[in-house]
Amino acid sequence: MILNYSWFILWFALAPIASLIEFVLFKLLTLIGNIPYGFGTALFAFLWQPLVIIGWHTPLGVAIDTSISSGTPQLLGTVNVTPYWGQLGAVVALAIITKNMSLRKMAFATVPAGIFGITEPIIYGVNLPRVKPFIYGCVAASVRRFLIENLDLDMDIMGTFGILSILRFNDSAWSINPEFNHAINYSQGAEIGLVFLTWSITFTVGFLITFFFYKERKNELSYFKKAINKIIKFTNSENKKDVLKNFQKQLESIKNSEINYKKTEKYYSQISKIEVKLAIIEEKKSKIRNNIFKKLNQLKLKLQFKENEKLYNKFQILNNKYSTFGYDTEKNKLQNELTSVISDYKQNLNDFNNFKEEIILETKQILKKFKLNKNQSEQVQNIMWNAINSVEICFEIFDSKNVNFKKREQ
């Protein structure tokens, strides 16, 4: 009975409300898209990937496609299928500049899906957790939209997404309402060429912004100073120099430890590179062993129906290969390399960890001098901890500590 009522509420109450919200949202974004000189479509394009995150892109996409299916080409349709080129450019740049080989492997693995319009792996797996690459991708998408509107590159046909959405552009399509007039009429070849050009621009802008402006590792000194500035704000200190004097030793230590930070970064980079190579070998080994196992099963079935010495010998050879197969030479070489790297950096790593522990203990003692409430003290310590452990956070050895100040404290 309860289930029946739930279905009734879902279909006859919530569904109409959801449809109304979708309709209002579509109209609102259509009005935004109508802002002249390309500013509207640029804003719409910037907002599209954030809409993907909250799940509103699907109903909006349906509304746009419904309009196209009725014979009315849509500029917003072009916006709908193309923002991922900005995200794609950002993720490729990130894959190139990162020193974390695990991240590089994951970033490149998202590219094929991105080419075909599936941006969720790029967004949730790589760009969004790092925030700035995601924003840079959105900026790249909005830059391109000026071209879309001013060149009148509207979408004419229903179809798929990604690179295959190029087939959706044809000003001469039979499905277009005869009463609809394009601002600019293109041949299909010319329109496809222009769409590819704008896609290339979007990808390039996303790539270049990320490549030149994204810093994978936070600057330890600058981030530590950020915590000190919070203390100055919370204590309403008029003399900034007095507060800075308390942390002068720690600031100098961090500044003088830049070489150690770089050595530690190099250490984790080498470790991640070797670990990725080992993982690739294991993947290859697993794939080949699975193929051998399938062949063994096929031979086993044949031997059940027909005893054959030749088949039996082949089975034995494959069975021995399955039992002993492995990339032992390559694996041993990499394992030895891994052991060597760990040994070479052991002393440096111990000294570096001792340095960080000392800084953390000293800052805790200094913070007791200031009249900070519990939340303020905790959040300031979190900022300092994140600053000191920037390398480990960059390589995902540690998780970044959350910094959540109350609104009046921000």
Total number of β-strand segments? 0
Low-confidence sequence ranges:
none
Structural class: mainly alpha
Strand content: under 5%
Note the total helix count: 18
- The average pLDDT is 84
Using the CA coordinates, give the radius of gyration: 29 Å
End-to-end CA span: 50 Å
* Overall number of structural domains: 2
Oligomer: single chain
The largest sheet, given as strand count, sense and whether it forms a barrel, is: none
Helix content: over 70%
What overall geometry do the principal axes of the alpha carbons give? flat
- SSE order, one letter for each helix or strand: HHHHHHHHHHHHHHHHHH
Which features would summarize this protein structure in a list?
mainly alpha; 2 domains; protein-phosphocysteine-trehalose phosphotransferase system transporter activity; 410 residues; transmembrane
Structure description:
The structure is a single chain. This protein has 18 helices and no strands. The mean pLDDT is 84. It is mainly α and 410 residues long. It has helices spanning 2-33, 39-54, 57-69, 75-81, 84-97, 101-109, 111-115, 120-127, 132-150, 188-213, 220-234, 240-246, 248-256, 258-305, 309-324, 328-367, 374-388, 390-394. The protein folds into two domains: 15-213, no CATH class; 220-395, no CATH class. It starts with a helix and ends in a 16-residue tail after the last helix.
What would a concise description of this structure say?
One of its GO terms (cellular component) is plasma membrane. The protein has 410 residues and is mainly alpha-helical. The chain has 2 domains: 15-213, no CATH class; 220-395, no CATH class.
